[in-house]
Amino acid sequence: RWTRPRRCSRRSRTMRCALPTPAGSPACWGCPTRPRSSPGCAVVPPVLLVVLGVTDWLSALLVAVTLPLVPLFMALVGLHTRDQTAEAARALDRIAGHVAELVRGLPVLVGLGRAADQLTALTDLGEAHRRRTIATLRIAFLSSLVLEVLATLSVALVAVTVGIRLTHGSMGLDVGLLALLLAPEAFAPLRALGSAHHASEDAAEAAAAARAVLATPAPRPLVEEPPAGELRGIAVTGLTVGFPGRGAPAVSGLDLTVAPGELVALRGPSGSGKSTVLAVLAGQLLDGGAAEVSGTVLRPADVAVVPQFPTTVAGTVVDELRRHAGDVDDARATDLADTALEWVEGVHLRDRACRTLSPGELQRVALARALVRVLRGARVLLLDEPTASLDAESTAVVAELLLRLRGSLVTVLVTHEPALAALADRTVDLPGADPDLPPLTTVPAATTPNPAASTPAPALGAGSGPEFGAETGLSWPRRAVARAVAYGAASSAAGIALTAVSGWLIVRAAEQPPILTLMVAIVAVRGSGLGRAVLRWLERLASHDAAFRLASTTRLRLWTALVAQGPAADRTPGRALARVVGDVGLLQDLSVRVVTPPLVSAVVLTGTAAVLTVLDPLAGGLVAAVLVAAVLAVLGVHRWADRGVARSAAELQTVTLRETTATLEAAGDLRVHGLAPSAVDRLDDLGRRQGRAAQAGAAAAAVGDAIAVLATGAAAVLALAVGAAAVRAGEMSAPVAAVLALAPLALLEPLTAIGAARRNRLAWLDARARVEAVLAEPVAADPAPADRLPAPSPVRELAAEHLTAGWPGRPAVLHDLDLLATAGAGWLVVTGPSGSGKSTLLAVLMAALRPTSGDLVLGDGRRPVPVDRLTRADVQAAIAWCPQDAHVFDASVRANLALARPRGELAGPDGEAAMRRALTDAGLGGLLGTLPDGLDTPVGAGGTSLSGGERRRLAVARALLADRDVVLLDEPTAHLDPPTAAALVADLRRALAGRLVVCVTHDPAVAGEQDSVLALGAHAPAPARR
């Protein structure tokens, strides 16, 4: 359903659809939404009851009475914990949304020096979730505890009654042994059903969330094709667009006609509805979805769009262009991609990874992507500020391209660039509109609830946080694992003791001793049964507690690593989410299956073999040999039959999360270009591959389980043969021989656990390796404590001599660079084409990247201090960075501005006054007066309730509020019309008077008479945003 415009905004839709489960938990991706019983669950208990009834009616009666109690109590426990389980799922969903939002806004947090503060918020959030979930699991696992207790008591009653009747001679030993062996098997299917129900709970939550999305009514289509025989242009009549909760409409009664071959430019101030009109023409904004749209729109079906904020799906540029070529063969798609790159002079970008592109390079790729559609036959070209992030040279390329296409396409251009608008055959000026009206695909926050934000997350900027880059905790919760192993081993030992003592009791009772001599064994049977159930409950809690601790610690360490990497961190939505959410979820889920079970199995198998060896060395040796052979066979079968299937399945889970997120982020572009069906097919193919991997893994598991069953049966037969021989020779009593024969039968669960752990181990190791790869990324090293110097305060001077710098593993970007910036003496304006090293220079100034040679110093006017003698924290404490892709968080205007200072500093009347001054200085004073709730007005996911220019100015206001000595501005006038841009620069010069300012820009009008201009060279490699 994402292939159509939805009621929710782009980012909130992405989070809801990519993470419909608790954090997209990989644990539930392979689970059915309802526990599906195998035929054994319905057939085995009745058949066993019939067999027991024929052989021993009393034992059958005991099992028949207790058997219905199991699902009854399980249902009661499930009903009691349903709300708590749903709340725990929503809490994990909030964590996923919160983490994803933080990853997207990492440049903002780093630029404001607030990234480390979020560590405390994440710690509190993860710990609160762990405690809440464990408290819920204590009750949820009671269903399995009830099952175990009832099953154990039933078996114990059968064993005791059989023993008593054997003592009185009213039953034969053969019948008693048959009853003892069959009674537990009647409960085994219910135990499997309970496990399946527990495994499917998250999947049921996922299905409910998916159904809620699917149940949302589809918006009404507005765009239609012109009737046959009419001109293939664009005809808009009476277009009116309004957004719920807003005042005046964004667009009111617009009539627009664009003839075939005509180039029309839409112009107007920020917030006048230009992007809204373009969204309607593209078919992305429909009536009944995010807005109320009326009027008629006629245009040809084939359209190519250059969005204002392009997103990519494929890994490389050429793959992205080939994907937008549609259903053509690979050779033709490659030719189209190469041709489009030549037209936009982007051939050097061909094999670049999309995640490494600068905003200007990404915009050039979006233009080439639209050209591919034009070459495929699109007759309408819609461009939304295609030069907002481009330098003058690249803007000239776009102008030349428009001239080249002139006359062959219906072209509608939205631009603030006067030179570009001058190329149009006709200009349509939209009147100024209410500045709070949202643009392209905007949605009021209340239209569709976002589960990730349904309950307030910890306040942004909360807490002081640990020292930047500090170790966040142990990589592995050893104590919790040790508790889980101890409880698991004790539970398995109790189960083995239950079987062995029951066998001893029955055989000893067949000798008809005095009943008092059996009382100790009777009590031991009951105690072992109850102990097994309670210890199993404790083991499950301990293992899940260890998994949650591991996930929380890993998540914090990943966040710390991303913060330390700064601008070099890979923040691509799909990839970042795959690491921080997907892989952490895999580690959490698989650690329960991979770490604890083999340790428990090793302890139990070794201990059982040792005890049997004490009873009879030959029998113990044979059992040990069979167990070793079984373990090797199970591992070998999984290695041969599985062939990495589990690893492949886990990789597919992570790839699916990444691909789904990236596809949803780019859904608008894919839908407009008619690529939604192929994108859906690609995701469906991933699902089918997951299904095939799961089937192969299930086959390997079945073979391994069969080997375990055969091995325990063979060990029991061998032990029985040895014991029988010893009994005949008078070297052993019959009850002890029964222990030798029955104890191996209780080793089935430890043996199958080894196979399950082996099946998931490779996937667990791969997820850990991917996480550790992020943790191992190189970061700018701080000087040794003995070499550190105190930071200058205030910073009044920044200077560099012969500076050379480049990203690790890539050629140097900056060569022999000299610069000087002084507070109060004009700005340092840095210009240069896209990819020339401007972002690299900002990273060096922030100490996120250390230069390879040369000197960089900060000074207070009296004492210069080399930056390589300062820590990253010291440098960044003096700097406020307003990045080009400044993220606006899904919160209120107040919460976004509060990020600029430590928590509490902007509270109260004085803080509110400072926020209002910053908004006024950033040119948003008029907007503030129109917001319905003032500073407490939500801005929507990604700031979608604001226009692109308004989001830019809100980011500038945050940087002003930070009140730092040095301010780094990255494209502060992007997406602003010339009058608004000039007013913003004038306001910034007044607000930043007396401070040291470094401004990166493509706009030559930003540089003033007193400013120093640093022009960087062309074709420098862009930083590798790993």
UniProtKB/TrEMBL annotation:
Residues 433-462 are annotated as: Disordered. Pfam families: ABC_membrane, ABC_tran. The chain crosses the membrane at residues 54-77, 139-164, 484-507, 594-612, 618-637, 698-726, 732-751. Keywords: ATP-binding, Membrane, Nucleotide-binding, Transmembrane, Transmembrane helix. The gene is cydC. GO terms for cellular component: plasma membrane. Residues 231-457, 798-1026 form the ABC transporter domain. Residues 433-460 have a biased composition (Low complexity). It comes from Modestobacter versicolor. GO terms for molecular function: ABC-type transporter activity; ATP binding; ATP hydrolysis activity; ATPase-coupled lipid transmembrane transporter activity. One of its GO terms (biological process) is cell redox homeostasis. It is a multi-pass membrane protein. This is Thiol reductant ABC exporter subunit CydC. Residues 41-196, 484-755 form the ABC transmembrane type-1 domain. The keyword Iron does not apply. It is found in: Cell membrane.
